Amino acid sequence: MxxxxxxxxxxxxxxxxxxxxxxxLITAMVLTFANAPPLATFQxxxxxxxxxxxxxxxxxxxxxxxxxxxxxLLVTFTAGQWNIGIEGQIILGAIFSTWAARAFWEQxxxxxxxxxxxxxxxxxxxxxxxxxxxxxxxRVHEIFGGLGFNFIATALSIYLIFGPWKQRTGGTLSGxxxxxxxxxxxxxxxLRLSIPSVAVALLVVLAVYLSLRGTLWGLQLKAVGRxxxxxxxxxxxxxxxxxxxxxxxxxxxxxxxxxLVVGVHHHxxxxxSSGYGFLGILVVLLTGFRALWTIPVALFFAAVxxxxxxxxxxxxxxSSLGGVLQGAVVLSFILVQGLREKYLRAGx
Length: 348
Known about the structure:
There is one protein chain. This protein is an all-alpha fold. It has a single domain (52-338), classed as ABC transporter involved in vitamin B12 uptake, BtuC. 75% of the residues lie in helices and 0% in strands. α12 packs across α13. The two termini are 23 Å apart.
């Protein structure tokens, strides 16, 4: 093995780690200026994420939603579409699942739970298609259409919680009436984690990976994303493929929303999407649009989200420090990528 080959292999291993190392350095500097011990803070962050079985389960609960959204976003990004409306698609999935729960209230879980999940997928897919139709037929950019539908979805959930679906004691921010336990997705004893949801999340990522990598549909999505007009001239049904991308992404988001209702909260609550869709966007960008890399990167973001709450309790630091770390990772990634491209151009 030549020296150059060893250097190339070392670069492939170290480059993905460089943004995280730089982000930790930036965060350590911020902590130092805030008179907080960096090492103790990072230790608390790790302990707050993985220190107990409950914390580890909570990390996986967040990971399930983030990785599902990331998998869906890979599809729309491949088609060249910025599906910012994924937050609304999560909410619509939760709304449709709640509607199914109310319709199957007296039914056994073996009947009701699959129906709730399926209807959640349908709700998210329909909301995604609505954004796609605005793009393909209304010439409304998907960013503006998606943001608009996010506001509508949020308003609709609040209307239902304080209106038709309010608790018998009256409308409350705690959400709708709790579902009967027969309609709860089975979880591990004493934890919020449902093993079936983790398995489904992994299957979703694998399905997206295989679909984009080895099918005609995936090839056509790539053609649409790289050159829309060129793909149309070559006979690719561009509008249909774009709509299919929005539908699949919405279905993944709706699936995440349904699991949040069925397996985590057991009723519809305000702000149920919790920003998981936006986190998914960061995950996809950081992975360089590689499906399998979404699994560990989404786990990192989920761990920071859960662990940051321990900083406020144990070190009297604001829990928003987790957001600082996440933002530092993104900025560091962009910086490293820019330096890498500059170095490669200079070397070429």
